[in-house]
Specification:
Blueprint lengths: L1 H15 L16 H9 L2 H10 L4 E6 L4 H10 L7 E6 L9 H8 L4 E3 L11 E3 L5 E4 L5 E4 L3 E2 L2 E2 L1 H13 L3 E5 L8 H9 L3 E5 L8 H8 L5 E3 L1 H13 L1 H4 L3 H19 L12 H4 L4 H11 L3 H13 L1
Parallel strand pairs: 1-2, 1-9, 2-4, 3-4, 9-10, 10-11
Antiparallel strand pairs: 5-6, 7-8
Helix pairs in contact: 4-5, 4-9, 6-7
């Protein structure tokens, strides 16, 4: 027995022994869990999850003189759950901050945040540009604070960010130009339009200063011209559109099927509750038109419900 114990000790010592490299430092005694977590987080699967999370529209709203009231009107009529993020770009004095955050906080229930370096963009959030800088956007959906650049004596923060947004988000980029002077935002809207994004401009007749809206309209790169209330309605409509909704289609279909099951559960007798325990994927195989016809035209009595569910089971 003593010999067996000695042999077991030798085997375990052989397993644990690590070959040392000459000139290398001391080896760690234990593997740290944090290192393992970091290695897991840097795997391709984690990068894919991060890209999926960042796959939502970003609406950049730019304005200058007289645009603060228009901005307030847009967010007053805008629903909270749109599934998109909003970045506010304003012409600011280099030495003074903006009142946009305080004003918007009274107009919307969405979180309104002043941008910091490396901040990740999230849906249903509003991000406000700090003074004396330009904004960039990385491929991971992080905002970048960049040094201010002068173009022919003028600061063009709208064009700068609109171009970065178009490069990173392509067809999921939305550019909005409100009241303001000069022509900032025009070239940025053209870049968004060229990448397949959506461009909106405030109606010059409703803006205090119509320089920026008229310049954008003259470029021919504007999809819709409307007052602030109409801009809010259009953004809400875009958020409900099937093209935008398809980005999170699996989650939406799951919620719809759950609501359908709950609705059927309410009307069915206890005998057919077994049917509702079927996998969602089996019910989701049927055509949307057939489900719509069955659910909303024929499901009026419990007898019709039973016959339709028997058809579902037979298929």
């Amino acid at each position: 027995m003593a010999k067996k114990k000695k042999s077991m000790k030798k085997q375990t010592s052989r397993k644990i022994s690590v070959r040392k490299v000459p000139g290398a430092g001391p080896l760690p005694e234990k593997v740290r869990p944090q290192a393992v977590r970091r290695a897991k987080s840097s795997s391709p699967a984690s990068h894919q999850k991060q890209s999926e999370r960042a796959n939502f529209p970003i609406a950049a709203i730019g304005f200058s003189a007289g645009g603060l009231q228009a901005l307030k009107d847009v967010f007053s009529y805008l629903p909270v759950e749109t599934g998109m993020a909003f970045v506010i770009i304003q012409h600011l004095d280099p030495k003074h901050g903006s009142m946009s955050r305080e004003i918007l906080s009274r107009s919307t229930k969405m979180p309104v945040i002043v941008i910091e370096e490396g901040m990740r963009v999230r849906p249903n959030h509003v991000y406000v540009i700090p003074p004396n800088c330009n904004l960039g956007l990385s491929d991971g959906g992080r905002l970048q604070i960049l040094p201010r650049a002068e173009t022919r004596g003028q600061h063009m923060p709208l064009d700068f960010f609109f171009r970065r947004l178009a490069e990173e988000r392509k067809s999921q980029a939305i550019g909005v130009v409100l009241s303001g002077t000069a022509s900032d935002g025009t070239q940025g809207l053209i870049a968004i339009k060229n990448e397949g994004g959506i461009t909106l401009v405030q109606d010059p007749r409703t803006s205090k200063f119509d320089g920026m809206p008229r310049s954008a309209i003259a470029s021919g790169a504007v999809d819709l011209i409307c007052p602030p209330k109409g801009i809010a309605a259009e953004l809400a409509r875009i958020a409900r559109h099937s093209y935008v909704a398809s980005r999170t289609g699996k989650k939406i279909r799951l919620l719809l099927m759950r609501s359908l099951k709950a609705w059927l559960r309410f009307f069915l007798s206890f005998e057919l509750i077994q049917v509702l325990t079927l996998p969602i994927t089996k019910i989701a195989r049927f055509k949307d038109a057939w489900l719509e016809e069955c659910c909303f035209k024929r499901l009026r009595t419990s007898r019709n419900m039973r016959t339709i569910l028997k058809k579902i089971l037979a298929r």
